[in-house]
Design a protein that fits this description.
By secondary structure, the chain is of the alpha/beta class. The protein has two domains: about 5-55 and about 300-400, Aspartate Aminotransferase, domain 1, CATH 3.90.1150.10; about 60-300, Type I PLP-dependent aspartate aminotransferase-like (Major domain) (Aspartate Aminotransferase, domain 2). Helix content is about 45%, strand content about 15%. Strands 4-10-9-8-7-5-6 form a seven-stranded mixed beta sheet, with helices on both faces. Strands 1-2-3-12 form a four-stranded mixed beta sheet. Strand 2 (about 35-40) and strand 3 (about 45) form a beta hairpin. The longest helix has 20 residues, at about 385-400. It starts with a helix and ends in an 11-residue tail after the last helix.
Amino acid sequence: MDLFEKIKNNMGPLGKHANEAHGYFTFPKLEGSIASKMTFRNKEVITWSINNYLGLSNHPEIRKADEEASKNWGLGTPMGSRMMSGDTKYHEELEKNLSNFVQKEDTILLNFGYQGIMSAIDALVDRKDVIVYDSESHACILDGVRLHMGKRYQFQHNDIKSLEKQLERSVSIIKETGGAILVITEGVFGMAGDLGKLKEICDLKKKYPFRLMVDDAHGIGTMGENGRGTGEHFGVQDEIDLYFGTFAKSFSSIGAFISAEKDVISFLRYNIRSQIFAKSLPMPIVIGAIKRLEMIEKNPSFKSRLWEITNLLQNGLKESGFNLGKTESCVTPVFLEGGVGEATNLTVDLRENYGIFCSIVTYPVVPKGVIMLRLIPTAVHTEDDVEKTIDAFSKVKEKLFSGAYISDKIAKH
């Protein structure tokens, strides 16, 4: 069969709906400055789908720092990979500042979080080693694990007994191979908002020989007394061996980093292919991240305000009878019952008639018959935004239960 013919006949579980969904349910265009209210198809909507947790995207000091860095350096500086010609004192300053913030010896910057953590997993383990990972890990972890040439075992989500079973299995293997064990989980699971059981996992280190990598993309800036992440929240930051954070959420930018022992970071600098063979992170991104980290450290009010809005939203939804699952973070999933057709009709109603824009998640991401509406509160949302959203959700829930949205097809919009 011709490759392109094969693709055309199987567009994938999401791609098969592209004709009906594109531009509205998938690849929608939110326009205007990043804020709690933006424009969607020429209408103002309250936006709950952007990871601008601390509201830094349009903070005047951030915008000024970004503007000046772009003016002074442009996006081309530095040219080349960091190993060959793209290192600067600013990159090193940011790495030092991040190390101090997350309380690790050293840090390596990554151009992209998804690409970076995949490549780090690939660099850290060889065919003698075993990877044990949470079943609900982010796609970037799953793809990194797939690169591994050795054994890999999945433990049931946040199930410590399942993890221990896989660790026992792994120990018997490394006795034969002479390899090592890497356990991977997340601090905050970005879809359902529950937290990884970091304390319980760290306790297992007393019994099993493994190193722990934590993807804390949604935790840094939002969790812990000082915003250092989920490890700080649980009091186990020093027991996390490889700490991954991103600039794409609380930092409202792009790029990422991994922090660990100095020798481990040195190893990654000389072995992580996605950075060795890629252009260095542009100067405006680096200088902007330095400024963002400074503001996060000096202004705890950003995180405090984020949690005020989060608690107001989540408590209000619960009081109105909504199921938020097991979220313990700012990520706010709302679970309803219904098919894909009902989900799309409900979403159109929310956007067109109530001015509420949030992400819609259906099968195959969640089980059949489940609709998940995912809200991301931020420090720049208002009490009025919360009140209007809860009211709108209550009204569409009544319509859903009454059968108003029943359909076998994706809604027209």
